[in-house]
Amino acid sequence: MEQEFFLVDPETRRPVPEAEQVARHSGAEFDVQRELTPFQIEFATPVCRTSAELAEQVLLGRTHLAKAAQEAGCRLLAAGVPPLGDAGPSPLTDERRYRLMEFTHRKMLGGQGVCGMHVHVGVPDRDTAVRISTALRPWLPTLLALSANSPIEDGEDTGYASWRSIVWSRWPVGGPPPHLGSAEQYDRLVGTLVQTEVVLDAKMVYWDARPSSHVPTVEVRVADTPQTAHEAVVIAELVRAFARTAATSAEEPERVDDVLLRAAYWRAARDGLDGLAVDPRSGRLAPAREVAAELVARCADALRDAGALATVEEHLEWLRAHGTGAARQRRALGDSGDPRELVDRVLAATTAEGHPGLPWTSHRTGGAR
């Protein structure tokens, strides 16, 4: 699992370009990478095989990176866009690839310094990865709604639960993947995109579900960076359970209309989990929480086998009472009217252990203290 974070100044609470320093302080123990701007940093867990192992690694990585940020004179913030400052202030990270992207895609890179989470699930072959990506298409808006954590930009409410996804949708190959039937079809399409210079290479295909370009996994990239480690693990467990369910199903992936799917994305980005959702399978509106419960029910056997069903169901109930990261950000801003107080609350949540009373909060190790 890969998570991207902002680095913010402890006084102004605005992004600061300290990724190089933070990476240096983090050492070689953890997989830490620089991102599009020097205001961002990424941490990737090792391969994890159980819920407890993943929860431990996510929390260890966040606390380690937060310590490295503090040593570099800044703070680690888990949000899809920075609540103070804009999403992607210049300059870009000074690497050849990012400079080439700036040349090919030009002003579009402005504001693209947003933070998301990518979940990789191991698959036996690339055909299976394409099958899972295609089957996941109708449910990607639901995963987006569950993870929404970017409503405030530069101190103002955008009116969207996930402003990150709206910003990211500018990319010509962002959003939901096309309905494809095989890895051969996928490779042929990506080859055409490279040949026509829409993308630099296969790594720049930013669809929200895709076969990984460098490891034997299906990669799901639809989520905002969740506010807490616990929420990150819940999203990852849902993705893993859906991947297993789709890979073993005898049914062909359901085909949904592309226009309705884009509409479902937009509605999920705007309303998150608190409003109505466009169901791209039926074209009707339904309460977003009911659609989320349907997703969990569809994956129930795989979640149960992983020992995660009860925790995921309890998390949905917790969200009903406390709201997603987006709702909590709005509430924090409303409580004080000061966006700096909002940033402070998100900073505290970034390395929080989890939600009281939920099983994963107990998987804490000495290194995470």
TrEMBL record:
Coiled-coil ranges from the UniProt annotation: none
- Designated name of the protein: Putative glutamate--cysteine ligase 2
Q: Which InterPro entries match?
A: GCL_type2/YbdK_subfam, GCS2, Gln_synth/guanido_kin_cat_dom, YbdK
Its biological purpose is as follows: ATP-dependent carboxylate-amine ligase which exhibits weak glutamate--cysteine ligase activity.
What's the source species' lineage? Bacteria, Bacillati, Actinomycetota, Actinomycetes, Pseudonocardiales
Record-linked Pfam families: GCS2
PANTHER family for this protein: GLUTAMATE--CYSTEINE LIGASE 2-RELATED
Keywords recorded for this protein, A-Z:
ATP-binding, Ligase, Nucleotide-binding
Q: Which family does it belong to?
A: Belongs to the glutamate--cysteine ligase type 2 family. YbdK subfamily.
Keyword hit for Metal-binding: no
The yes or no answer to whether the keyword Ligase is present is yes
Q: List the catalysed reactions.
A: L-cysteine + L-glutamate + ATP = gamma-L-glutamyl-L-cysteine + ADP + phosphate + H(+)
Q: What EC number(s) would the UniProt record show?
A: 6.3.2.2
Q: Which domain of life is it from?
A: Bacteria
Record-level Gene Ontology MF annotations: ligase activity
